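Blackboard transcription, Thursday session:
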Amino acid sequence: DQQVKQNSPSLSVQEGRISILNCDYTNSMFDYFLWYKKYPAEGPTFLISISSIKDKNEDGRFTVFLNKSAKHLSLHIVPSQPGDSAVYFCAASRRSSNTGKLIFGQGTTLQVKP
Amino acid sequence: DADVTQTPRNRITKTGKRIMLECSQTKGHDRMYWYRQDPGLGLRLIYYSFDVKDINKGEISDGYSVSRQAQAKFSLSLESAIPNQTALYFCATSDPGPTDTQYFGPGTRLTVL
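(Written on the board underneath:)
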């Protein structure tokens, strides 16, 4: 039972354009969401997060949007750069449980073409 | 120097062998986690630990065991490796606080023949 789903295994965009990565979740108890980026031969690195009390969080070129009613979040990268090419994982947690456990999606491979 | 280190980085072993993967951290975090990554499945939690005396099973703990030797060290063991344990294994750390951000090591690629 996949509680966090990234239905697009891959995405290809042109340099300078917007990249939009999507993530859906099923558990309404999730109250914190994170995006991680992973390069080959490296571990995932934290990118950006959002609490369920917000619907948008922005950090430079990266913006995460949360639609709680649809149980959907998205990561926007504007403008996309070739160095953004990586696998992106969304993750969700129940901060109220105080376990620190993250549930990850399957990942989306982003390729930004020069 | 890396905050979270894993050894070995790559390992090839045979079915039935005992394998230990090690994780060390210098971040001073209390919480440590072991995940495995498989193609199309993302990262799945194997075990997690809040301190030396607190070990908890994750969603896929069967066939694995762990040891928290110190705050900074968390080892994952495969008592009798089988081919479907071939995967990328990641260790992560975190501290309780306003976010659940976890910090990952570089991973160990394990192949069981």
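Lecturer's comment: DSSP finds no helices and eleven strands in chain A.
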